[in-house]
Amino acid sequence: MNILISNDDGVFAPGILAAKQAVEDLANVTVVAPDKNNSSVGRRITLFNHLEFKSVELEDGSVAYSVSGSPADAVIVGADYVMDEKPDLVITGINKGVNISCDITSSGTVCAAFEAVSIGIPAIAVSLFIDPRTSYKQDENGEWYLDYDFTLTKKVLHDLVLKIIDEGFPEDIDLFNLNVPSNYESEDVAITHLSPKMLDKHVIDNSDEEKSDIFNYPLDENQNSDDLIMITSNLVQEYDEGSDGYALFVEKRPSLTPLSLNMTSNELKDW
User: Residue 258 forms beta bridges with which residues?
Assistant: First the structure.
């Protein structure tokens, strides 16, 4: 089997190396990813513009390729330019952050998987939900750091790919969206449906005193903020049983959501 791996966090992000390590004993693996972070860019594609393409070395010494474009660009470049033959499977991730609900259409990770499906390749989008209450740790000097523990995510991804090798993709399923919590209480994978949304979004300006720290943080010194606004968000707190959010945040177990690229709904009835 030939697997193409990409992401939206950038080619040197720790998650893409973890994804490679999870499946490299099962297949020939090629890594092609954006040269920098492209989170929340959706399925943006760069058409009729030049992209910078480079060979790079990952932390384990293996060769990968960087593209100065979006995650979807990287999948296209990997499948149509880098690899001699179209890959049998595309994996995007492991993303550092959650990708659930109908909000996945803004995710560079998931939309790179959608792009793979659109060119005839089944895909898996993989994300690690990092709970800040348990993932921030201190080193011997007392400095805080974020601990990316990909152990369970790698195990679930490995087992999923092994099942796909043995049995193929389920009928009418184009891709899987896999989310694994860092603070898991069970390793049992829940088969889930998409929650309605993941984020509550709000717009603020410089008159919002409660969120002034958030609003002012990215400002340059002496920058005028009178004509500026900011879209902020908070994670939704309540999820229906059986949904991806319920598995991840309430049951604290991995969530696997089967998806189809064709979003047509035929249930018009007597409308």
Answer: 176
